[in-house]
Specification:
alpha+beta, Alpha-Beta Plaits, two-stranded antiparallel sheet, 4 strands
């Protein structure tokens, strides 16, 4: 089996001296594959949907694209949310609060 035929998990376990130089991608993908929500340490954002006016500022300012929107409400993707609090700070009606996990 060649290196390219091995599963990604096996290829990522290379010793540092065997890793390719310069951030070579083993296969196409994106950061959506990685659970970055585990980085969240203290607080997570919670939306009070009754107070939300759907201005979408939280969705616009979220640096991790962790706010998803539908026609009638926004939701937080805790799988990717790092708990930075930008959504809470930008909300004009303060319907997003940061709560301890």
């Amino acid at each position: 089996m060649t290196e390219d035929e091995k599963p990604l998990g096996e290829r990522m376990k290379l010793p540092w001296r065997q890793m390719p130089i310069g951030g070579t991608a083993f296969q196409p993908g994106s950061s959506t594959e990685y659970k970055t929500g585990d980085w969240r340490i203290i607080k997570k954002p919670v939306i009070d949907h009754k107070r939300c006016i759907m201005c979408l500022l939280c969705w616009i300012f979220c640096p991790d694209v962790s706010i998803t929107r539908s026609p009638d409400q926004v939701e937080i993707d805790y799988y990717h949310c790092k708990g930075c609090g930008i959504c809470s700070a930008e909300c004009p009606v303060r319907c997003i609060s940061m709560v301890e996990e």
